[in-house]
Amino acid sequence: MNNLTTNCPICDGEINLPPDLEESEIITCDECKNRVVVSSIAGSKVILEEAPEIEEDWGE
Amino acid sequence: MRIALIHSTIRGDEKLLIKAAKKRKIELVPVDIRKKILNPDTWKDKFDVVIERCISTTFGSHAVSFFESIGIPVINSMKVARVCEDKFATSLSLKRLKIPTVPFALVFTEEQAAKAIQQLGGYPVVLKPAKGSWGRLLAKINDRDALEAVLEQKMVLGTPPHKAFYIQKYVEKNGRDIRVTTVGNKVICAIYRVSTHWITNTSRGAKALRCKVDKELEKISVSASKAVGGGVLGIDVFETEDGYVVNEVNHTTEFKNVQAVTGVDVASVILSYCKEVSKHA
Predict the structure, then answer these.
(1) Which of B130, B194, B264, B277 could form a disulfide bond with B176, CB atoms 3.0-4.6 angstroms apart?
(2) Is A12 inside a domain boundary?
(3) Residue A30 lies in a domain
(4) Which residues from B are below 8 Å from A58, CB to CB?
(5) pLDDT for A2
(6) pLDDT single digits (tens) B44-93
(7) Which one of A26, A35, A55, A60 would you mutate to disrupt binding with B, by most B Cβ within 10 Å of its Cβ?
(8) Least CB–CB distance from A22: residue in B15, B57, B131
(9) CATH, domain range B2-76
(10) How many domains does chain A have?
């Protein structure tokens, strides 16, 4: 992927997507600073959703 | 070799593994465990090795049980996961083999907590959830008043796992600790985690700096790795006047900061280790 952009599912702001984006990756919206998760990638179509809250058992 | 990268979200660490696999032309398949059915009668996908990298300890723990049960070697193994996901079990494993570790006790009531703290040499102590990570829900308890307040909160508001009180003696670490990365009982590299706060997790803002591994650090890290069953580990070590002591051992260790600071390609080392594990399966 090169210079792809999509819209934030929370604030609708434009998000620049990194070229090595992976499904299930959590990224941060540049505009609203909310965390969003990559739900699916199909070619140049990237679906983002609101990221889950950090759970108590998350970590190393 | 076909490797499954089991995850429940992709962090920078998993991206490094994906990138390293691409570079080395290794087939690494990211598998979001939340989208799978762990039924041994219906599971079809064949893998030579599984790397368990779930951000959720609960999901990771079940995934490890599943893949080992259907005969696929997992990094890290169920034995390692069971010991490392529980700080009390880790401390007991280290203690059993006389590996220097932070003095600890586990109790279930405030009365016993007060007595245990006297046994540990008095205040301050650190109260931690036996199962937890990223420095969350840690409490430095400086006196009896603080102990009573924190334990009451846990007894009233906490879920049952929070009503087992894992207590460690507070160790003055002068603003830093050491994270040693080991793979297959070998030390790969180490970083200092530097912070003005007593909690020195990088996830809590500590700065990562390169740390040179001396013979004593290597020795205690290898011993700690062997004590919990080996695999890919992040071993947290304190420097004290009496020498190094092991604080914790992490079995889903995050290494992106380690790799960035040391320049060591930890991801590639892990992939090489996968090959070794699959050969001996």
Answers:
(1) B194
(2) yes
(3) yes
(4) 55-57, 133-134
(5) 56
(6) 999 999 999 999 999 999 999 999 999 999 999 999 999 999 999 999 99
(7) A60
(8) B15
(9) 3.40.50.20
(10) 1
What pTM was computed for the model?
Answer: 0.94
Q: What is the CATH number of domain B172-275?
A: 3.30.470.20
Contact A4, A46 (CB under 8 A): yes
CB A25 within 8 A of CB A34: no
- B256's CB contacts (< 8 A; 6+ apart) are B11, B12, B13, B16
Domain ranges within chain B, ordered by starting residue: 2-76, 103-169, 172-275
Cβ-in-10-Å burial (0-12, 13-18, 19+) of B213 comes to: middle
pLDDT tens digits for B229-267? 999 999 999 999 999 999 999 999 999 999 999 999 999
Q: Residues B25, B77, B100, CA angle at the centre, nearest 5°?
A: 115
